[in-house]
Specification:
CATH class of the largest domain: Mainly Alpha
Number of helices: 10
CATH architecture of the largest domain: Orthogonal Bundle
Distance between the termini: 53 Å
CATH superfamily of the largest domain: RNA polymerase sigma factor, region 2, helix turn helix motif
Structural class: mainly alpha
Radius of gyration: 18 Å
Number of strands: 0
Order of helices and strands: HHHHHHHHHH
Shape: globular
Length: 179
Amino acid sequence: MDDSDEALMARIGRGDEAAFRALSRRHLASVVALARHIVRNGADAEDIAQEAMLRVWTHAPRWQPLASFRTWLTRIVVNLCLDRKRRATPLPLDVAGDPVDSTPGVEQQIEASEADRRVNAAIDALPPRQRAAIALTYRDGLSNAEAAEALGTSVSALETLLVRAKQKLRSELRDDLTS
C-alpha cells in the first residue's frame, strides 16, 4: 500500500481496519525493537507494542498531524516504556529466587564481537531516559528535534541527556578496557 502514514491514520480514524493492518505491518517491528531496547525485556516489549498500536486505533479519530506519525508513535512507545520502568517494583530477595543466568548463548557469542557486548552492557546500565535518548538518536536515526519531541522534552534537555550518557559510556568503557 503506497498511502502515507498520515493518510492511513485518516482512514483509521474513520474505522478502516485494512488501513490499521497496513500501518501496523509497517511499524510494528520497529515499535517492538524500540521497546525492547528501552525496557530490555522481550515480553514487556511486545506488551508495550500491543498497547501502542491499541492507542493508535483508539486515538485515530482525534489524531492531528502536528508532528509526523512516526514521531507521535515513537512518543507513545517511549512514554509506555518509561511508565513500565517506573511502575516496576523489585521483589524481595527471598521471593526473587535464584538469579537468571544472563550470559549470551553460544550462537550470540559467535555473532557478537567483544566490543559490541561491552558497549551494549554499558548502554544497559544507563538510566532509562538516557538509554532512550541514545536509542532514538543513534539506533533509530531521529534528529535531535524529533527525539526531543518523542521524549517530551526540549532539544537542549535531550542534548544534555546525550552528553551525560556519552560521558557515562566513555567512563564505563575506559574502565572496562583498563581492567
